[in-house]
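Subject: sequence -> structure tokens, single chain

Hey, anyone have a minute? Need the predicted structure for the following. Not urgent.
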Amino acid sequence: MIPVLRYLGGACGRARGGFPGSFSGVCGSASGRPWPLCGGVRSASSSSFDLVIVGGGIVGLASARALILRHPTLSIGVLEKEKDLATHQTGHNSGVIHSGIYYKPESLKAKLCVQGADLIYEYCNKKGISYKQCGKLIVAVEQEEIPRLRALYERGLQNGVQGLRLIQQEDIKKKEPYCRGLMAIDCPYTGIVNYRQVALSFAQDFQEAGGSVLTNFEVKDIEMARESPPRSIDGMKYPIMVKNTKGEEIQCQYVVTCAGLHSDRISELSGCSPDPQIVPFRGDYLLLKPEKCYLVKGNIYPVPDSRFPFLGVHFTPRMDGNIWLGPNAVLAFKREGYRPFDFSARDTKDLIANSGLIKLISQNLSYGVSEMYKACFLSATVKHLQKFIPEITITDILRGPAGVRAQALDRDGNLLGMLSNRNVSEKCGNRTGETEPQFSLDDYIDQATSSINLKEYSSLTPVQEAAHPRTTKTWKILQFSISSAVRLHTHYAVEKTKITKVTVLMDAILIPLGSVLYPQECKQEIY
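Reply:
Had a minute. Here:
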């Protein structure tokens, strides 16, 4: 089979740091030409590859790096629609290295987030990438929050998070002199990093290993080549054609799509289902004025409320010395709309047609109205921030940057990351009642890539086309999904796809260093 591996790198693949235009060291390229490495390291260009990765964010670049390090004999290319790499979700987030305290014990998120934190620190040390292990306080400011705080502390201990402590008011003052709280979890292993710098380091590793990066290549279609060009040397060696909006095309055997905010649309281009659909949520940040940055030393987070789908506004120090306050979570009417009034007719039409979104809004109406109100009126946000640091006033803050989170949503209004394994199994299960195998991605990639250049392409028979009309153009495409990563350095696979009676339940993949974990079974809930 020739697989398309689809990554929902939602909030997945992110990087901390400045925003587009703020990195003087970022290199770009013209359409159809390689993205050059800073420093002049060699970068190859080709119109055909063994494997192509669509998306040059941190998820795509980490995947490219992992694959080329595991399979150095393959020719691999990364296609990015922008002129620079890592400019959307990877460059629009708070840049926190989370420690793994929030997730259900024994879940994939818990295991991978804890190990991912270790690996991201290790990678940064190896590459000389600056980071700060400034810690985090999760602070209860109301008596009713204390039971939830204690339960969260116990969860963190079960997850193996390093150095956790429950501290009282006097110790809160020692850690954060201006912070008010009744009780807090001290999580010293939490850090901050420039995730965009990490992503660009992945790109450099990838190119130094022989990979190619092509920017200004916006994918318009993915299709199977119908027949071999006359006298073609390669014949049907590269049966998948990836076309861009300018009429250029790349031929390959495998496609990995890591399209972030456009994951569902790229999935549909490949002939697969667009579900779960992507719903964009804009997160607006506020900035503390420089003369007030002394008020915050490390990360200060609220106690999460399980009634609501997002974490809440928090205080986040940045590598450049700034302090970000936020983000909120408001529905965006443009997938790459970083300003309040950015609008896309196509994106808005998709939102209106999304039945799952209507259900999500109805289930969280009061929360949504509150977030919209705070986005419009700074005084409301300041009132919330004063619960933690009473000294903050409206004159101390400025409106700051924003990011857009690619939130995967099913038709029942469930956020993708909140699906239980039971729901995933139902979606992955064989509806005909037949027993279908489940494969580890580790085994599959080893088998599939080892067979490149050895197996000839064979087209669908009429019987197969009739039996599987939705997969006619992707009969040789095996797709798996990576769920939106709530944490910046960890990605999980919980989704499914069924192609010609083969179901693959991808267990887990740890992105940052290309390290992989493949539990034999997903027996626990994702959260």
